[in-house]
Amino acid sequence: MRAVVAVLLLVTAAHAALWFFFQDKRQAPDFTSVLPSVSYTPFEPGHNAAADPAADADKVRDDLKKLSTVTRAIRLYTSTEGSELVPPIAAEFGMKVMLGIWIAKDIDRNNREIEAAIDLARHNSNVIGIVAGNETIFTDQQIPVENLVAPSQRDAFAEETKRIAAEEAQRIKDAEAQPENKRAEALKWANDENNAHRLIRLIQRVKKSVNVPVTTGDIYSVWSEHPDLGYAADFIAAHVLPYWERFSSTEAVDQAINRYQFLRNQFPGKRVMIAEFGWPSAGYNLGKAVPGLFEQATVLRNFVTRAEAIGVDFNIVEGIDRPWKYFEGGVGPYWGVLNNAGEPKFNWTGPIVNPDYWKLAGIAVLVGILMSLPILRLARPTILQALTLSTAANGVGAWAATVFAFWNGHYFVFGSSLALTLGLILLVPLILIAMARVEEIASIAFGRKPRRLLVKGAPTVPATIGDSVSFPKVSIHIPAYFEPPEMLKATLDAVSRLDYPNFECVVIINNTPDPAFWQPIQDHCRALGERFKFINAEKVQGFKAGALRIAMERTAADAEIIGVIDADYVVGPDWLKDLVPVFADPRVGLVQAPQDHRDGDRSLMHYIMNGEYAGFFDIGMVQRNEENAIIVHGTMCLIRRAAMDMAGGWAGDTICEDTDLGLNIVEHGWLTLYTNYRYGHGLLPDTYEAFKKQRHRWAYGGFQIVKKHWRRFLPGASRLSRDQKREFLLGWLNWLGAESLGVVVALLNLIWVPIVAFADIAIPDKILTLPIIAAFVVTLAHFLILYRLRVPVKWGQMLGAMIAAMSVQWTVARAVAQGLITEHLPFARTSKGGLSRMSIEFQAFWEAVIGVLLLVGAAVLVVTNNSKQIREIYIFAGVLVLESLPFLSAVAIAILESSRVNSFKFWHDAGIRTAELIGLRPVALPSVRSPSQPIPSEIRSEVS
Length: 944
Hints:
- The protein is α/β, with parallel strands linked by helices.
- 51% of the residues lie in helices and 9% in strands.
- The chain has 28 helices and 17 strands.
- Helix 10 links the parallel strand 7 (272-277) and strand 8 (313-316).
- The longest helix has 37 residues, at 722-758.
């Protein structure tokens, strides 16, 4: 234990050291002065200034008090909706104001804006200019001609209006006369030029009424392409925002100064002001332009020092973050030099650092420690095992710190808060599942060998139970329902060959009125002798459990062990001889042997199915056995009769009666044991449809058991130990939860696709999408590593098994959903023995629909993001592709089942043809059994 504690301390120290070494510190020129001007928007558009003017004034005063410490002037964008409070309050702090007039298509609102700005300029001496219109030409907000003069002058303006219309029409006509390859560009310029001339008239209207400079604010290219506008304005107010032009943060300052010099050269002698320059502190990237706190601080400090050195007149956008600006995209709320609370986001002198960095480091290390503590409860963990688990725990700690940083550094409206909260709620079980899989990898790859696993050939105690009985009597029960008679005969023949002197066999055929199914079995039981009892029961209630209850009624009174096998299982002669001795320990209530199959060579589909089943019995069951928490799966099971009676026998209220009984036995304190040696071999489901139906029944029955037993997991409600509870809960979460969660997340992401693609809202990659990718990688590693270490299959069969395992995600999720809304579904028999034929219906229709939609969604994201190149959207598209794999796996198997490729004969013949084509002599290959040939009753599969 000391070594384990040392490992935990070492990993914790290494984690803390990584935070120390990777702390981001950047250098930028110090700025010790105050900014000449910053943009300020006190209220959200549409704000009702008359509702509570006193509160509005208090808010503006509080904002300006904070801004007065960083700037000498304020630039506004509107003169109504509360902004009219700014000039007089700014004067209290000695601040100048550049008024704004917001121009749109609403004539009356435009007039109110114009008149308000004129009035404010006349009555406030600290007003130093008016900006009429904000990016009016760039955003194609055509100014109504009615706003070009005061309302009282409109009648006299009629002739001028006609002249304006004629001029504009002529420009459009000239543009339409351009060659076809230049026409679209010419029409856009003509439309913008028309608007520029309207804007010139608007500037002239305002200039006549005030004594301060009047201009308009627009991007630098608008001024360059429409020089008449530049000459009409009192000064050039150019917006230079390198982020929106996709320049990197290292290129931003050079780009801004170049734009400034360009306009100075185009308009010599004219005052040129960079009326908007800034960089967002959060949000999504746009090509090379990456937002961030460090990038914002570096860009602004470099810009202001350089601009001051060469005498550039500028305004920083903006003063305070405004969370309601989400309509400007993911970066909209994050342009302020102060956060929404009015606190500085970075220092203007000294190294640029994250002020919350060490808080985040502390959270990461603390969560890593807390997540590592359960390692101390493990029984004799190895150093490598502890190292792997502690590293994963600290990785979760780092993710938790990232979540905190994101939550603390972003603003949320209702929609984004809901999306993030829902995403995190779904991620918590996902991370628990991933951690459980990491623990299983560490345990199997680096932990100690299983201690409780029953190994064939290992010494056992004498087979005695009681004082005078040397071989306790075993009653073997075989329930059957419309089973092929020849298959069931093979099962009975194998039982008759058991190397054990004291057993009986009770065969119960239930709800099968057709004598063709039960008469041959009755005759065969008579031929096998008095040990074999035959029951033909009609109208049995309770599915398979009801039949097994009847079998118990016909069981010999002196039988102490009950054995259960399915109708398709051919048991080996050593089954009872090897496993009954374990019951000499009076605490043992149940011994389970694994399932295996003797028809894995029927087709390629059956081959990969068989590999998929093997994983559960060679990996999961072996691990659960170490905590006395195995899943009982009915066939190949031996149960002490006393334990069965104590647990209440076979219950018919679930469709997985075997697992239900096994859990009841464990809850009563009995020991259960497991062997992974194959003592019997059954048959695989005939078709992919049958495979999915069987998995649906298991999942639905499993969820029924969860609903039935959850109260017994409460403290003191049963004799389950803490480790047993943990194994069962994680087992359910790892299977039912993981598959259902995968489907839910995939469907939610599909719904999110149009929002991301067309509303400029990106998924936050570090906290939502990257964990999904990490969980997928963990799952993939879990499957591949554990299969190579525990399951004796070849690489091809292993990869096929992985596809088969993924293919039932939708099936399991659908079963869980049905379990949430229903109490019971009919028991569905799994078709085996070759009687069933493949359905003409495509067995993966809904999987195909969802899988294709996920791929289409990924394609839409990539195409719509081609111009923006937002990293988070590409990652999100990758997540959609990963999420499509389970659905497409089902489609692949459904297609495989009906294709020639599914037949081993196809591959046999292809091998011969290939050998002939390349000039080799045909190689003798194993013969292929005809599909119509009966399945041998005693084919042995390779065992580990």
